[in-house]
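**User:**
Everyone, produce one record:

**Assistant:**
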Amino acid sequence: MKLVGLSRTIALTMAAMAFGITLLVVVTSYVFYFITFHFWQGSINEPNMFPSGLEWAWLVSTTLVGLAFAVIVGVHLARRILVPLNSVTESMRRVAQGDLDARATTGDRSLGEAAVLANDFNALADQLQRMSKEMTFWNAAIAHELRTPVTILRGRLQGLAEGVFPPEQPQFQSLLTQIDGMAQLIEDLRAVSLAESGHLNIENKECDLSAEIESVVEFCRHALNASQHYPTLDLQSGTAYCDPFRIRQALLALLENARQHASPGTLIIQTRQNDGWCVLRVSDAGPGIPQEDAAHIFTAFRHARDADSGMPGDKQGSGLGLAVVAAIARAHGGEAKCYPSDEGGSCFELRWPTPSHST
């Protein structure tokens, strides 16, 4: 539906009203004097220019009809302006009171600016509702992720305090493992939050991308081999322009995701530089990601379904790792995506532009 502008509508309405009243005066004048001269000619006092009683009756009647016409037009125009504005005002009060389902309504004949205002308010209310739902979801997800390590820490520390567990090195190592997991979760939360607010700092510089990748893989090789995941490197030599710390962080997240969720087998880590893009890929041997989960696989706290059962996966993981990868990719001006690998599993790709293509 094409919306008519407020100023144009008011101008046209005033012009139409003026024309209508003028036409009313002209027509009624002609009719009045025609009837008077033919039927009541004696009631007109020609030497006296002051209106006679009959003329006064005509003037008053014409004025009242003109006023009635102006009131009807004004009320109609005001209703077209005020209906959406009143709806916006009422909806704003409801939103201020916590009712995020409130929406403004516009009639079919609402004026352009008023309808745009109502539509913009509805878009704002939709955004507020979405953010409120996401905040509630994030609070519940964070509480869920922190509950397990905190419960374990409390149980172990209480056991040590009461003498149930002997104060031996394996116990302390277990406590450190839980603390490291919490620290990683907090760092992932920080990275995702900074990225969403546009404050994830990226310190780009030229670096040997292959050397950075090799160092991360060697650091993780023992843990990967313990879970029967065997990394294979396919690296293209050359320098890349990026933030090496963030790229290492993204690769760590991809390898940890593969360790927790991929089937045992070979992990292929690739780097490529072509067509003005730097590309980092991690491919696994399965089980793959269902199509319905691919759209939100990089969303925080979203877990993919099990490929065999169709139920949400039960393997451990905070659900933040891939969100961190996507955040780092966006901070570099690039993107992260997931698609089926040649080995029957999934290929996670992180790509970002070189300086000549970053604009």
Notes: Confidence is low (pLDDT under 50) at residues 305-315. The radius of gyration is 37 Å.
